[in-house]
Design a protein that fits this description.
Helix content is 67%, strand content 2%. Strands 1-2 form a two-stranded antiparallel ribbon.
């Protein structure tokens, strides 16, 4: 059996179909919660849990759901796993739950989660659907953690709450909404430049 296509189902979410840097989806939590690395990582993990769990269920029942109600069905499944993630964070990690605020419940309306169900999980077998979800979820985790790390480092001289630049003069703008836009724009431009140069070399 040729495993290359299955392997690529995971890798595409890290770069070619990265929901943040390539598709520019899920901007609401991306810009709102990435004031620190731990917030970005936590939101990424919660979203990946919801995405992977939903893709698992949708792929299994894809032949049973009538076309007329598939979006409503997918939304209900997403909402179920969002509730699980939200309650888990509130029970086990209250400070993180408080820091993320309403953005965990708002995963329900995160467009790239519903989009992956409509475009991929509802049309592919379980194995491919899980690899797709894990790949896109990993790409989301990396993007949010990177954004949060840069903003926390420049905005407070810290990383995951630990001081890494003693005596750093904080760039206050980095912990404000403007800092989120600036950091995201810089990272997207950097990825475009890398892709352009590697494409020319190829």
């Amino acid at each position: 059996m040729n495993w290359t296509p299955w392997y690529q189902e995971y890798l595409k979410g890290l770069w070619r179909e990265n929901p943040i840097f390539r598709m520019l989806l899920g901007m609401c939590p991306t810009l709102a919660v990435t004031t620190s690395a731990i917030n970005g990582l936590s939101m990424g993990l919660a979203t990946t849990f919801v995405l992977t769990s939903t893709s698992f269920v949708v792929s299994i029942i894809r032949r049973l759901v009538p076309t007329q109600v598939r979006i409503a069905t997918f939304t209900m499944i997403i909402a179920t796993f969002v509730t699980v993630a939200d309650l888990f964070l509130k029970a086990k990690f209250p400070p993180i739950s408080k820091a993320l605020g309403p953005y965990v419940p708002l995963i329900v309306v995160n467009c790239f989660i519903l989009g992956r169900q409509e475009v991929f999980a509802s049309k592919n077998p379980l194995g491919r659907s899980l690899l797709d979800a894990l790949g896109v979820g990993t790409g989301f985790i990396l993007a949010l953690t990177l954004l949060g790390s840069i903003r926390e480092l420049l905005g407070a001289g810290r990383l995951f709450g630990l001081e890494v630049i003693p005596g750093w003069h904080p760039w206050v703008v980095m912990i404000l909404p403007a800092g989120a836009f600036l950091t995201l724009g810089f990272l997207v431009a950097s990825m475009n430049l890398i892709e352009e140069r590697t494409g020319k070399q190829g």
